[in-house]
Amino acid sequence: MSARTISIVFGALALFTGSASAQTAPAGNADHGGQLFVAVGCYQCHGYVGQGGAAGPMIAPPLAFEAFELQLRTPRQVMPPYSADVLPARDAADIYAYLLTIPASPDPDSIPLLQGE
Amino acid sequence: MSGADQSKIKRRQFLAGAAAAPAVAAVALNGSPARAQAASVPAVPNAAGEVNPPGEATPLPEGYTCGSDHMVDVLKALDIEYIASNPASTFRSLQESIINYGGNSKPEFLTALHEDSAVHYGIGYARITGKPMAALVHGVVGLQHATMAIYNAFADQTPVYVIAGNSISEWTRRPGAESAHASIDQAQMVRDFVKWDEQPPSLRDFSNAAARCYQAAVTGSPGPTLLVADADHQEEAVHPEHMEQLHVPRMGRITKVGADSGVVQEIADMLCNAENPVIVVDRFGTSMESVPLLVELAEALQAPVIDTRGRMNFPNKHPLNHTEIAGPTLRAADLVLALEARDLFGMVNNLADTVERNAVSRLRPQTRVVRLGTTTLSQRSNYGASQRYAAADIEISASAEATLPYLTEAVKRGAKASFRTRGERLRMATSGLAEATRVEAARAWEASPISTARLAAELWDQIKNDEYTIATECQFQSYWPNRLWTMNHYYNYLGTSGGFGVGYNAPSAVGAALANRALGRLTIGIVGDGDYMMQPGVIWTAAHHQIPILMIIHNNRGYHQETMHIQRMAARHNRGIDRAHIGTAINEPNIDYAAVAKGMGVFAEGPVSNPVDLGPALRRALDVVRRGEPALVDVVTQPR
After folding, report:
1. What are phi and psi of B77, to 5 degrees?
2. Residue A51 in contact with partner chain B when CB distance is under 8 A
3. Domains of chain A by range and CATH?
4. Which residues contact B453 (CB under 8 A, 6 or more apart)?
5. Considering only the top CATH level, what class is B442-636?
6. How large is the ipTM?
7. Are B441 and A114 inside 8 Å of each other by CB?
8. Which pTM was predicted?
9. Nearest to B571 among A1, A77, A81 (CB)
10. Segments making up each domain of chain B, as ranges
11. Of B432, B634, B614, which Cα lies nearest the Cα of B553?
């Protein structure tokens, strides 16, 4: 399944479970989450700011925490699982908090290089 | 001495004085003091205290020529433009003949700092020109160095003409290391992944062997071939009376093989009668004629085209290009026409890197598949070309390019009014893709490390008015060049390495740039840092031979693919998920690629990690490239 299709699946999951919400997620340390995001390899497939790419879909802004945790522990497709043994709930919450801090992508209309020919 | 006696003076007779007079200094052919014994052959005592110095180099008798001069005549007849090589003793005579007797022109000697580079230059060159250049490699160890590149050429059906030196006779080998560089059957190490190999038993046999190797390289399914040129034959003194026996081969025009007219009509009927025919294309775009042929077929049929990017096969912004929505397009198909598909299984199945390795078909059960291409003409049992066996309903072993004109005419004769409606629907399906691509490209636009989308967009802004080639694989940059740039010609993008051997991109890009130099095209390579460090010396070759190329280091500071593999295993094994960088990261210290390139005499900038600095850096580098020189920019990038 291509990264694009996975993004579509994630989008559908978001509609089903609700969009990202800081209020429903457990409290987390975004700074520590940013460190973990690199240390445990999330960036490898999703990019340093969760933008996605050929190896993995966009994850910032994230899905609702429940959907995020579900994908983290029992992932669909090729993502490797991160069990609670290697990534405790506290760390998962921190990573989620980090994802919530990532600013939204700019409007492509504001980018001269993306205006087409 | 009679002419018959003189006719076959062997090399060993020139050196007959060496063993008897070890203290005598050798005299070069031009009378000047000989060079010291080559560093590649250190003096090795046969017994304690005994050393073999270089032998006395006796000039050829008047009127004689050497075998390697004849070999150069043969290479000229084959229209070999370049011969890339890391110099070595097993072909010293041939190299001398190339540069002196041959005037270092057709072929021109290209200095490679590694034999793997030499063969990869040939891959890039052939992707542009459609014809092979030569790579000249040292006996045994040089060929060993070159094997991965030869495998890449084989896997990707690209012709490269490899010549290996050898010294088969133990009585005439040079002393020392040469015995370790000699082989009775040197081609054995590559036989499973070359199309043809020959080790001619005499100088007289060389020309026909050379012709057969060339013919095999370019006919049917193109690929690499190996010709072994023995040192004895190279250095053989040839009497003028025997020159007539050394003929130069004639090469006729070589055409591609097309499918028979009956099956062409049958496929055309199937295509015209299908409700949702889909064309999937892999390694089709190999000439100026190819892409327009596919456009004509697709438009006649009003069928979507999915480009797996083994080459630049179909204009990327054509409304019938369904590459970005391949999943649903294939799912809707009732007939798939696969053109030049090396891995048919991978084309029509999804196989994920999960424990179960379950393949999921991308097609409906009733969908029929027709494969048209030359892949089946070069398959070998020992090396896999396809992930798994996949049966096509009709398998046609013929050139898709040669067949397409006739197939298109047959489709036009059977065209239906319903095609128009289908075409409108297909165009509607892709109408929103450009906007979706822009939105996706905007993500991480200001990020550091720099996003690959930003890199591609900055580059395109500066090359969009050039005739260009991006000569490197783009999957590692999430195919942003293929998605953002305009690609209409086969030479805009040259596809993948074939065998996915790491170290392909930089040297192949230089080979493509070599070919593009004569055509006035701009060549760009975006090379992963790990890939580049396999053969960083290629940028020196580009500088030395004034080959203009913009080499960009996609610097994600690691063997990123392998980092993900280790991460996957750590997660599966429930341990060490923060240790995947061990053995995969390329940092601490960070390599300064610009400094390395500058050390080789190349204009270079970097590392560039602020996206604001990227455009100006690229502009300065492109100024250098447009003046005819190579340039390198080290860009610290997002992983993909």
Report:
1. -65, -30
2. yes
3. 3-104 (1.10.760.10)
4. B440, B441, B442, B443, B444, B445, B478, B480, B484
5. alpha beta
6. 0.86
7. yes
8. 0.90
9. A81
10. 65-245, 261-431, 442-636
11. B634
